[in-house]
């Protein structure tokens, strides 16, 4: 497995990615826009925009306390991985597509949603805490409609003389923008946390989850035809550069350690659940194979494979290297905040996702 790094400089180093095959590293970070797809690990406000009562806790301390413009509508204490990319590329936040106020979409948009699964949602129960109906197929529909809106605002017929002014990128910039896809966590976490499936049953859905991600990537890489009313058919520009991130070690997630831990469980040397980590490893292996296959199928596109698992594991192996970031700030906040204590204090947020430094700073140091 070749390992290359993507460095974006904007007063800070942004991220490092691991690639599953030889490929050229990104030469710079001069992207006109950035677009994100996925679940709560990437959502910057779509969940709370769609369901303000259900997800209102995202605006309450300690959520967003490290974010420059708190409250941030993010499900962590500060910036997420996509924020580090966005601030480094354009030095501006990445805004949720459903956000109706105070959003600046000049440099792209975010389609990820809290509780959004990789697989299509067939039945959705509004009372379930960690879920939403906005799976990747729905996010894909938003994106395709988004491109039509870009065309509309540029059309001299539908928007003569630019009378309707919107802060949007040019449609032509889509194929030179950076896309991120980080999905699948919701599929596994929800199945395991709520015990909808056993551990062995959850491992069996890995091919379905990866297939859904693969199909989503193919759709954003595909040239789509669109026929505007009264106009000839046109070709909508596709994505050409996509960063696909793998799964973090599920067996190290505090909420899942709480639910599936105990005297009967098998732990690894870092105190993580071995059987749950096998799910992540199976997912990552298959996803890496699919990314390599897509590289061959779409040779003109650049597909980057972000090794989140490797970064997380490196922190567990060498916590002293990250000691300046790791500290203990757990109290009895909303939703019964889970805390990770001991040498790895501060790695997890709410027992579900990661804190700001896990999303950015420690990834910067892993190169």
TrEMBL record:
Signal peptide: 1-22
Keyword Zinc: no
Keywords (A to Z) from UniProt: Signal
Keyword presence, Disulfide bond: no
One Pfam family per UniProt: Lipase_GDSL
GO MF term list: hydrolase activity, acting on ester bonds
Name of this chain's protein: GDSL esterase/lipase
Gene: LOC112274425
Recorded family membership: Belongs to the 'GDSL' lipolytic enzyme family.
Source organism, top-level taxon: Eukaryota
């Amino acid at each position: 497995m070749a390992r290359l790094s993507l460095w974006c400089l904007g007063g800070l180093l942004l991220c490092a990615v691991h690639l599953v095959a030889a490929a050229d590293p990104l030469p710079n970070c001069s992207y006109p826009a950035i677009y994100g797809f996925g679940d709560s690990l990437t959502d910057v406000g779509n969940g709370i925009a769609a369901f303000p009562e259900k997800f209102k806790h995202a605006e309450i301390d300690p959520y967003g306390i490290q974010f420059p413009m708190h409250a941030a509508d993010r499900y962590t204490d500060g910036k997420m991985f996509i924020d580090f990319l966005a601030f480094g590329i354009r030095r501006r936040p990445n805004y949720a597509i459903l956000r109706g106020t105070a959003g600046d979409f000049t440099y792209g948009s975010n389609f990820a949603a809290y509780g959004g699964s990789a697989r299509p949602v067939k039945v959705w129960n509004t009372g379930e805490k960690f879920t939403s109906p906005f799976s990747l197929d729905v996010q894909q529909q938003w994106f395709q409609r988004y491109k039509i809106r870009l065309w509309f605002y540029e059309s001299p017929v539908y928007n003569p003389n630019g009378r309707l002014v919107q802060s949007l990128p040019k449609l032509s910039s889509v194929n030179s923008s950076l896309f991120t896809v980080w999905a699948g966590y919701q599929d596994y976490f929800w199945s395991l946390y709520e015990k909808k499936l056993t551990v062995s049953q959850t491992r069996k859905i890995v091919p379905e989850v990866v297939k859904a991600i693969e199909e989503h990537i193919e759709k954003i890489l595909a040239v789509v035809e669109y026929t505007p009313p009264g106009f000839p058919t046109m070709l909508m520009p596709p994505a050409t550069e996509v960063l696909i991130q793998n799964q973090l070690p599920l067996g190290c997630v505090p909420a899942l350690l709480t639910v599936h831990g105990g005297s009967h469980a098998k732990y690894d040397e870092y105190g993580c659940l071995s059987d749950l980590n096998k799910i992540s490893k199976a997912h990552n292996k298959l996803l890496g194979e699919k990314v390599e296959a897509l590289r061959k199928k779409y040779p003109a596109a650049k597909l980057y494979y972000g090794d989140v698992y490797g970064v997380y594991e490196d922190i567990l192996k060498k916590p002293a290297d990250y000691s300046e970031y790791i500290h203990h700030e757990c109290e009895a906040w909303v939703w019964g905040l889970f805390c990770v204590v001991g040498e790895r204090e501060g790695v997890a947020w709410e027992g579900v996702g990661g804190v700001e430094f896990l999303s950015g700073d420690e990834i910067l140091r892993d190169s």
